[in-house]
Design brief:
949 residues, 22% strand, alpha/beta, single chain, 7-stranded mixed β-sheet, disordered N terminus, 8-stranded mixed β-sheet
């Protein structure tokens, strides 16, 4: 029997989705108020589609049909609709059935499903998206299988089912194809879903960055103002499409502004406009959005301020902006945005307020701050670098950095991705996308608002409680290059965009200043690199000496990268000469172009024109003619060459006949820091090419652990904050995953302690369990190696005399573990980031220094090995100062078992094993705690949906 709450309107099923062509639509349950929409929708469906749906001519719906298709109990009978502009464009329905195919209720777990998509919207991926959503609804209501009958001629619908990735069975009965789909998600169905998500979201971004026509709404008739500035930048940037100025206040006689057509409304434009740049006061934006939606605009860049950054009223205005735009199938950059730039020759779009248009380059740049965007663009322009695309998303109420990661992942014009982020709305998705993109091209992130504990006012996103150190570790696990400042963001981007990845950490240093060489050497050691002894060319070295020395060290197989240091040299008359930077730049470029491909960076002091000359070495476009060795046209990517063992796969670069740009830095520390990040990233790329595995353990009892969790949660009062397991249940749960906890026995008095020791066997430890003294040997709450009754009684007396009564201290006795290194293993669930496994050494020093390493669950065998080696105190585990190394393999296995435990059971919200004493052989878990809670929802495992903040 269903409860009344199950019949209530399930608003959590509502979702905005991005379709295959990049447009958006809304999925929602069908209600009794939808009768007219349903009839209107059905009238626009072709007779052929109706025949495929009902297996017979069915020109119109009867009143009985309309009632049946609009009245649902949202349990056994469910209907969903896809709407665009508030009107139905597709529907899907399931009816629960029994084994005979008759209407049924739970516990029957099969349902018939049927789709109908308006002909004008077929081919947009609507049925595939609907299948994801109706399958998720069915699973929520206890349905495990869908059955569908499809006419053999309805090949499109058969393909939708076949390509979904679900386990399925097909047979031919009575002239129809009968399909049965198991709705349990599979690795294939999840891969299909994420592949479709990537293509759809990338396409939605491409529509924003590659329009064939742009309307600037709010361009004034007099010079000045935001709208007029954007219009001027569009024209000055050489936009290849058509441009329109739109302003409701324009007089009828004014037909042109800056040489482009001027209109009062989009209705006066004869063609469809792809992109609208909105620069009007916030109170006027809704009418502009409606005008754009009614005339088929595909996307909006909203520069207007006065939204979430201005307070609660603005936050609601921002939500309504997104709802309104999505209802028309449009995506939004902004509000409070700075604009977008695409330097690709087919577009040449500068729909931004950037005071200086950057040149064409290989860097994709995304920022959530207009001011930072200005600074980054200025920094790149000043150092002779360009961008492929630039986006300043402002409050990023809709389109976010995740969308652009989807786009840049396979964008052939982008080699490096730079992101300035102040908030991460969906950390799970961000790390997943960054890991995938990072396997093909570097992703560099500078994150602001790291220590404020909240998102900036305009960012209406969930606030995660993960410490910044944890965020940094998780980004590193995903291959993201994390930098601290926007200057470092540019420094790293320049090196990664123009130089090959280093094959290792060995750095050659050469130059004409011994002191600058030593500073560079020290900087390399600080960054964990392995510098070779600096090669001093002396202050009399000329550009040809630099060329010869650089060619020699690049040819050295023991060198992975080179830092060239240069100061003004001594002339023939003994005077210092700044020289012609172009001459030195030419020498360095020639040496780099003829030697093996290794990264080169230049540190210079007061050499005029050197940085500009190095950065202007070559265009980023392929040179005309075939690519050497391939016979391919210049715009055709060459086939991947076989890599030697251990080589780093790198994105296609410019032809070797074109000298690379060599990045120049004004300080050794900046050059070496950028190089160090490239080395770390290259190492991650090598490891990502051969990822680790999540091991299977035969002794894990997953079903037994699930039964224990269900029993405990079923017996306890419902508490969304969770509950702590008792000691016995904790030991039993961990034991089912092969994790043994040394037993403890209570000792309410000296006699009780002696009795407990007799049961456990000497030697024993006596410990307090009161929270403020737990695991605090430094405060006297732990007495170890008590070898007999006499010492145990003495220790008990000292403990109670020093710290308090037994009732307060709650002493326990535990058998002694073999000597070793005390460590701590924890796992916690963050609603936004997911399960995080943490490791560190026990003790006050580690806690004080925050020396804890983190990894996202599930952890692979390789990641477990990296985790215990990532803490600064790791040498204590591996024989520091002559001590015996501990059993690292046993510790890695424990980490993997804890990872499996929390990954298998989402009800486990925290696990703490403290201390874990790791000996030379084996380990001992001396204390453990587990907290349970109702499992949180997992948006990343559900059907595709756009975030709604």
């Amino acid at each position: 029997m269903t409860t009344p709450s199950q019949h209530a309107y399930p608003d959590h099923w509502e979702a905005d989705v991005v379709l295959r062509d990049g447009g958006t639509a809304r999925v929602r349950p069908i209600t009794t108020d939808d009768a007219e929409r349903l009839v209107s929708f059905y009238e626009q469906v072709s007779d052929e589609s109706k025949y495929y749906r009902f297996f017979a001519p069915y020109p119109r719906l009867s009143d009985k049909d309309v009632y049946r298709f609009t009245h649902h109990d949202y349990v056994d009978r469910v209907g969903l609709a896809v709407t665009v502009g508030g009107e139905f464009v597709a529907t899907v329905r399931y009816d629960r059935i029994d084994a005979r195919g008759m209407p049924a209720s739970a516990p029957a777990d099969e349902a018939e499903v049927a789709f109908l998509v308006q002909d004008a919207h077929q081919g947009r991926g609507i049925a595939s998206a609907l299948l994801e959503h109706i399958a998720a609804v069915a699973r929520e209501r206890g349905i495990r299988r869908f059955a569908a009958e499809v006419l053999p001629a309805n090949t499109k619908m058969i393909k939708v089912f076949r390509d979904a990735g679900f386990t399925q069975r097909r047979n031919f009965e009575d002239g129809a194809v009968r399909l049965v789909l198991d709705l349990e998600p599979t690795a294939e169905s999840l891969a299909v879903q994420r592949g479709r998500e990537q293509r759809a979201e990338a396409r939605s971004v491409q529509r924003l960055l590659g329009p064939s026509s742009v309307a600037v709404v709010g361009a004034g008739r007099t010079a000045g103002g935001v709208g007029r500035a954007v219009l001027r930048n569009l024209l000055d940037g050489g936009f290849t499409g058509r441009t329109y100025a739109v302003n409701v206040a324009l007089p009828p006689e004014l037909t042109e502004i800056d040489g482009v057509p001027a209109v009062r409304s989009l209705a006066e434009i004869d063609e469809r406009v792809d992109l609208a740049v909105v620069a009007v006061p916030a109170e006027r934006v809704p009418e502009v959005v409606a005008d754009c939606g009614e005339h088929g605009v595909q996307g909006l860049v909203v520069l207007s301020a006065g939204y979430a950054e201005s307070g609660p009223a603005g936050r609601e205005r921002q939500r309504e902006l997104v709802r309104q735009a999505r209802s028309y199938g449009m995506r939004v950059i902004g509000p409070n945005a700075f604009g977008v730039i695409n330097t690709g020759p087919p577009v040449r779009l500068n729909a931004s307020l950037a005071p200086e248009t950057p040149g064409r380059g290989r860097i994709g740049l995304f920022t959530q701050s207009g001011a930072i965007g200005i600074a980054l663009l200025a920094g790149l322009v000043r150092r002779g670098a360009g961008v492929s695309t630039f986006i300043s998303a402002g409050n990023r109420a809709d389109v976010s950095g995740n969308d652009f990661l989807q786009y840049w992942h396979d964008d052939p014009d982008t080699d490096v991705v730079l992101l300035y982020l102040e908030s991460i709305g969906n950390p799970r998705k961000f790390t997943r996308l960054a890991r995938r993109t990072g396997a093909a091209k570097p992703v560099v992130v500078a994150k602001g608002a790291r220590h404020s504990g909240s998102a900036p006012p305009g960012h209406a996103v969930p606030v995660t409680g993960i410490p910044d150190a944890t965020v940094s570790a998780l980004l590193s696990q995903a291959g993201v290059i994390r930098v601290d400042t926007v200057t470092e963001l540019v420094d790293a981007g320049l090196l990664l965009a123009n130089q090959p990845l280093p094959a290792g950490p060995h750095v050659a240093i050469l130059g004409n200043s011994e002191s600058l060489g030593l500073l560079t050497y020290d900087a390399c050691l600080t960054e964990g690199l392995r510098p070779l002894p600096p090669l001093d060319l002396t202050t009399s070295a000329r550009p040809e000496d630099f060329r010869t020395a650089l060619a020699a060290v690049l040819a050295d197989p023991g060198c992975d990268a080179v830092v060239v240091t240069a100061i003004p040299w001594v002339g023939e008359n003994g005077a210092m000469e700044s020289g012609d930077g172009e001459v030195l730049a030419t020498a360095l470029r020639e040496a780099a172009s003829t030697a093996p491909a290794k990264p080169v960076a230049v540190v210079h002091v007061e050499i005029g024109g050197l940085a500009k000359a190095l950065s202007a070495a070559t265009t980023t476009a392929p040179r005309p003619g075939p690519v050497p060795g391939t016979g391919a046209a210049p715009d055709t990517p060459p086939p991947p060459a076989p890599e030697p063992a251990g080589a780093v796969p790198v994105p296609p670069r410019e032809p070797r006949t074109a000298p690379r740009r060599i990045p120049a830095y004004p300080a050794a520390e900046r050059a070496v820091r950028a190089l160090g990040r490239a080395v770390t990233y290259a190492q991650w790329r090598r490891q990502a090419a051969e990822p680790g595995k999540v091991p299977e353990y035969d002794d894990i009892d997953e079903s037994g652990a699930a039964g224990l969790i269900d029993r405990v949660l079923g017996e306890a009062p419902v508490d969304p904050h969770g509950m702590s397991l008792g000691d016995d249940d904790t030991r039993e749960l961990l034991a089912r995953y092969g994790i043994a906890v040394r037993p403890t026995l209570p000792a309410s008095g000296p006699d009780g302690a002696v009795e407990a020791a007799a049961r456990l066997g000497y030697p024993v430890a006596l410990k307090t369990t009161t929270p403020h003294l737990r695991h605090r040997a430094d405060l006297g709450g732990v007495r170890l190696d008590l070898a007999d009754e006499e010492r145990l009684r003495a220790a008990y007396g000292e403990l109670t005399e020093l710290l308090g009564e037994p009732a307060e201290l709650r002493p326990v006795v535990q058998s002694m573990a073999p000597r070793g290194v005390d460590t701590v293993v924890r796992a916690v669930i963050d609603p936004a980031a997911g399960a995080v496994l943490s490791f560190g050494l026990a003790g006050v020093a580690s806690e004080l220094l925050g020396d804890v390493a983190h990894r996202l669950v599930p952890v692979t065998d390789r990641e477990a090995a990296e985790l215990l080696r990532s803490v600064r105190t790791a040498p204590l585990l591996f024989g520091w100062r002559g001590s015996a190394p501990v059993d690292a393999a046993a510790l890695e296995e424990l980490l993997l078992r804890v990872s499996r435990l929390v990954d298998d059971h989402p009800e486990i919200v925290s696990v703490a094993l403290e201390p874990v004493v790791v000996a030379t052989q084996g380990l001992s878990v001396l204390g453990a705690s587990v907290r349970l809670a109702p499992p949180p929802s997992r948006d990343d495992l559900g059907p595709r949906r756009l975030p709604s903040y």
